[in-house]
Write a structure and sequence with these properties.
This protein has three helices and seven strands; from the N terminus they run αββββαβββα. With 135 residues, the chain is α+β, with helices and mostly antiparallel strands.
Length: 135
């Protein structure tokens, strides 16, 4: 996946002081790439509001997090903080993979899923579930 594709995907920055009931800040996931040139994302604000982001970067407010989703998100964010993941884990030789840009707590992690990142992969999967349940 090229750096240019990462730049094209855009950066979804969020502010916030903590997800409801936790010390966590807002989190966002931007997905781009693949054979079809997919671009979309999901943002969760510090208050638990969910926004879907389309390929043009337009945000649409969706249902708030459920309590179960929020608790799982809080736990996954704690797990990611504990492992201190690399900021970039992308196999530049691979083609047609999705690139996942995860932003949280003032940090960005970019991965194409070619390297197992444990808690990061789990957090990405949960954010993808949050998004897909609101489509």
């Amino acid at each position: 996946m090229s750096l240019a594709l990462g730049a094209v995907s855009g950066v979804l920055l969020l502010g916030g002081c903590g997800l409801t009931g936790s010390g966590q800040g807002a989190v966002s996931l931007s997905v781009s790439g693949g054979f079809a040139g997919v671009r979309h994302g999901v943002e969760v604000t510090s208050g638990g509001d969910v926004f879907l982001v389309d390929g043009a970067g337009d945000r649409t407010r969706a249902d708030e997090l459920t309590r179960t989703e929020e608790e799982k998100l809080d736990g996954l964010l704690d797990a990611v903080d504990a492992v201190d993941p690399p900021s970039r884990a992308v196999d530049d030789r691979s083609r047609d993979l999705f690139e996942y840009r995860l932003q949280f707590d003032g940090r960005t992690v970019v991965t194409d899923g070619s390297q197992g990142l444990g808690a990061v992969d789990d957090l990405i999967a949960h954010l993808k579930e949050i998004r897909s349940s609101r489509l």
